[in-house]
Amino acid sequence: MSAGWSWYIIALVALNIFGCAWLLWWTAKRRPGDPKPEDTSHYWDGDITEYNKPMPRWWINGFYLLLAFSVVYIFWYGGLGGYEGYGKWSSAGEHALAKAADDARLEETFAPYKGRPIDQIAQDPAAIKLGQAIFNNNCATCHGSSAQGAIGFPNLRDDIWHWGGSPEDILTTILDGREGVMPEWGSVLTGMGGDSAVISVVAYVRSLSDSARSKDYLAVQGQRLYEGVCIACHGVDGKGNQALGAPDLTDDYWLYGDSTAQLVESVSKGRHGVMPAWRDMLGETRARLVGAYVWSLSHPGGETASAAPATQETSPQ
């Protein structure tokens, strides 16, 4: 705050305090010619009389004491522009103290889970409750309060993982985020196979999860185009590549929708999905608790990674 604004506020505060003091002094005095306290001649309804009696002295003195207290309070806590107060108190400092105390309590609460694998943390019901609370506060905006996701936001309750479903992969996803990019292939495919190229690729991709479609004319035409463009990421068999976040095309899960129009848009215009990094926001231990909660959703039996090998299917969780 500039010095000019500080002096303006100081003048305003002083004017208010001295103005209140003067008003008390002026109205408490009786002057020559004032009517007697019992003689004002103001009557209503015949027997209701207004008197000219001053406030009791103890009441007026109480107001003076309140004004004196306000002066001491302002000098101690600040309130005169840029003057921080003799006691050096500030709302920012009070917040920092409260935050430090809360952080210490949280650290004590989270300490038992520090550095532990998330599949082991998932065996602790108390940890699952903590992880769910952190999830609801931070992750439910995209994945929903039930963690079932939406179009463009993966379902966390299934066993499909685009970036890997092992405890380490899930923790890495939460801490450092993921960025999945599906390039635009519309113009490339059209140049290779004409106007029907994109719909032919879509037909072939559908046949990967539905063998009954494999003999369709468009699917047969689309296989050649798929093998010329798509196998670099999704593989010859369409199983995808978790290192790239390329989804498995042989299952029945479609992150951006399974309608023909949605699949055509994915192939022709591409997709760009971003999972933010939460390392700075949550810290590692809270990220482990969230990961344990997410792990528990797709492992309702409570098995650990050592007891049940991680699935090879995919979804960008």
Automatic annotation (TrEMBL):
Binds 2 heme C groups per subunit. It is found in: Cell inner membrane. Pathway: Energy metabolism; oxidative phosphorylation. The keyword Oxidoreductase applies. Keywords: Cell inner membrane, Cell membrane, Electron transport, Heme, Hydrogen ion transport, Ion transport, Iron, Membrane, Metal-binding, Oxidoreductase, Repeat, Respiratory chain, Transmembrane, Transmembrane helix, Transport. Its main location: membrane. Gene3D superfamilies: 6.10.280.130, Cytochrome c-like domain (1.10.760.10). The keyword Oxidoreductase applies. Residues 126-209, 217-298 form the Cytochrome c domain. C-type cytochrome. Part of the cbb3-type cytochrome c oxidase complex. This is Cbb3-type cytochrome c oxidase subunit. The lineage of its organism: Bacteria, Pseudomonadati, Pseudomonadota, Gammaproteobacteria, Lysobacterales.
